[in-house]
């Protein structure tokens, strides 16, 4: 925690706003809105997963529809497609940002149109905080008239051409889960430029209650609104977001300086116009065997590192859905490693991690 969180939470208790609405929810939404800008309106929700679920529903996705989804991601990007009985179509990454390949996206769209079904939405992800190729993906989405759900769960504070991530999709989503760059323990948000869409998101997230003195329902609703207690944590966290981004970027710079000139180790650089919050610092090793050697050497000292996300088209639960891949994410999964990336790592920690990584390479 950063400092002011407790104060906002105490305020919720003192004023007895222990509910999924109240001044902290409003204040947190305003703080996010002011931070990301770009005319976006925010609905605070119980999780990023809930935000993706509502986004799909708001875009009219239903049973039997097809939704294109970046394969190289965390499963929560894709699971809500199945909640609605729709089918994911997975698209591989390109090597510059590790995110959705525009070429493979177009191949996927054309293939699905030919088979008689235009996809209902595209879920593109800013993985590890690195923005996807925003302009290229938007051009394709517009050309084929398919809306974008922008999964910005890992990318609060990242930007593309000076504009904050979360504001590029027809609907954007954020996560405040415990492992994200700022947290409310659990939480998320839905972002949209359309006030009507925001209103409908709030309506659906609070059990879809029609305007009547009794409880009247003409749509299926969800219990997805953020609690006023947790939103208090979020308000405090927004005040330290810039600090957290700086700390994460410093981790990356440290690793790059310490390990960047070692033969065979590669780092994901920021292309021109791309700014990453460096949520996690990742390296690419020459082979799976080297990756494992580093991981196990760190593990010997109780230091946890992790392989990159396993692509969705290789997951048992999703492997039978169509995928358009050229091996990029499979290769990243085999050779890549997330190094310890917490905002509170000490200089000593970083030295030790770099040292072990270096020595396990020889
Ligand atoms: C964390 C995460 C989510 C889900 O957010 P929750 O708040 O944990 O439900 C979705 N997509 C990606 C890429 C994530 O990292």
Your description of this structure?
The protein is an alpha/beta fold and 362 residues long. It has 12 helices and 15 strands. The protein folds into 2 domains: 5-238, Aspartate Aminotransferase, domain 2, CATH 3.40.640; 241-360, Aspartate Aminotransferase, domain 1 (Alpha-Beta Complex). The protein has helices spanning 5-14, 23-36, 48-58, 79-83, 102-114, 134-143, 195-205, 228-238, 241-259, 288-300, 328-335, 347-359, and strands at 41-45, 66-70, 87-91, 121-125, 148-151, 159-160, 163-164, 171-175, 188-192, 266-267, 274-275, 281-284, 306-307, 323-324, 336-339. The protein has an 8-stranded mixed β-sheet with strand order 1-9-8-5-4-2-3-14, with helices on both faces. α4 (79-83) links the parallel β2 and β3. The chain is globular. The two termini are 39 Å apart. The structure holds pyridoxal-5'-phosphate. Pyridoxal-5'-phosphate binds at residues 47-49, 73-74, 76-77, 125, 151, 153-154, 175, 177, 188. Residues 47-49, 73-74, 76-77, 125, 151, 153-154, 175, 177, 188 line the site of pyridoxal-5'-phosphate (PLP).
